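If your schedule permits, I should be very grateful for your opinion on a structural question. What I wish to show you is a protein chain and, alongside it, a tokenised description of its three-dimensional fold. Would you kindly read the sequence against the tokens and tell me how you understand this chain to fold? Here, with my thanks, is the record as I have it:

===
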Amino acid sequence: MFLSISLRLRTMPHTEAKGGAAGVTKCPAPSALVLHKRAYPIAKRTSQSAKTCKTNAQQTICSQSSEPELSAQRLSRRDVLQKSSLAIGLSAVATELWLPEEARAATAFANPADLGNGFQRYYGRATSASSYGGYGGTETEVDAFKYYFDIPSSWKNEIITKQEKGYQGVDARFSIPTKKSTNAFLVTFPGYQTLKEDKSSLLDDLAIADGNLQDTLALAEEFTITERKNDEGQLFVEYDVIGEGNSILVNLTTYGGRLYVFFVKTKDNNFDRELYTQIRDSFQNVKKTPAELAADIESLKRAL
């Protein structure tokens, strides 16, 4: 059921209504409405009874009918703006709801997306700190998603605070609801075209703003670095940092002028290393449109 609102403006005499025309190493809008300061009358439909009589040779028949009549009601500039915004918003909602199913699938999909194999895939936007909460960004729908990773379906998305976003670069985090110390999170910063040669010091740089990471690195009993490249030549540096009561698996890369660091972290000494390595290695950068991503998800589910 849709609600349609239509606004009709009648101008004052002599006034015209105008409108505007989108390797491994072990280490230790629509047209604009022009408004003026003066108030504009808006047509309001009221009902007025009218008496109609017909006469023939035998008798005269009279009946009452409701004849619509237009009367003017003056609205302030704020009233016109509010009503116009409401009409435009309702129109946009109606347009989206009336889209064919195929068209809606091409413009939007569930995020995280259920892969049908006990995992869900999360797509992240890597927004800047100034865009926290959805404000201040200039991304379009086509280039909005910058990366994705897969986590178990039972893991839940957590809200990132403005401080975490601004100081630590955290963009997304999922955790086990009953054990939040086991989690996977993505850190990203702009201004990185390549990685420096000393890969062992990259995590030390990140630990400057993260006290927990400092402790994990300092108490690590195992520190392994593996470098690999994908088919396109993109370099990924993977770290296994294992310690008593604190372990992290890390996937680090640069793409599109940004540094991406994906952490899988746990305090469990008996964690499923194979599973957590699978989560860590699932991180990839997005190089497709939302419509192509939606098609990929459906293709993965059909192949199961």
